[in-house]
Amino acid sequence: MKRIIMLLLILASIMPLPAIGFGYHVFDIRTESEFGEGIFPTSVKYQFNFPMPDFIEGRRTVLAFRLDNGLMYRTLRQDPDTGAILAKDPPSYPTEYTVLFDEFNLFFAQGFGETLDEDRDLITAFISLDGRFENAYERLSWLTSPDDMEGVFSTYDGGVRTERFPSSSWIGAPELAGSRSIFQTSVTAGVRFDWMDDDVTRRDGVRAASYLRFSPSWMPVSYGDGADFFLIWNELELSKTLLTIGQERRPELSWLSIVLDDKLMYRYIIGDKVPSYVQGGDIWGDNDVPNGSHVIMNRLSMTLYGPQINSRDSFPSLMLFWDFGVALGHVLNRGSVNEAIAETVGSYGLRAEFVIFGICKVYYEIGCSYDGAFSEPGGVEQRFGVTVGI
Amino acid sequence: MPMQRRAVLTAIAIVLLLLPAAADPSYSLSAYISGVSQGVDGIGFGLFPIGTTFGFERLFPLVPGERDAEFQVEMSFAFNNRTIDSNYDYQTGLSIWFDRAISRLPAATYFNPRASIDVYLDQGFGDNPLYADGSLVNLRIGFNARYSMALERVDLSKAGNDDEPLFVDSGGNPRPPFDGRLPAYPWLEGNRQVYTDYLYLDAYLNLDRDTPTDAETEHGLSLDLSFDYGPRWLFNESSSIVQSDFWRLEAYLEEKMELFTVYQDNGWNWVNMYIGHSNTFRYTGGDVIPENMLPDDRLRAMIADRIWLHFTGPQFLAGDCFAFIEINLYNTLMFGGVANEIGSSSFALELQSSLSVRVQVRLFGFIRLEYQVGYDFIRGIWPEYPRWWQNAALSFYVSV
Question: What ipTM score was computed for the predicted complex, to two decimals?
Answer without folding.
Answer: 0.84
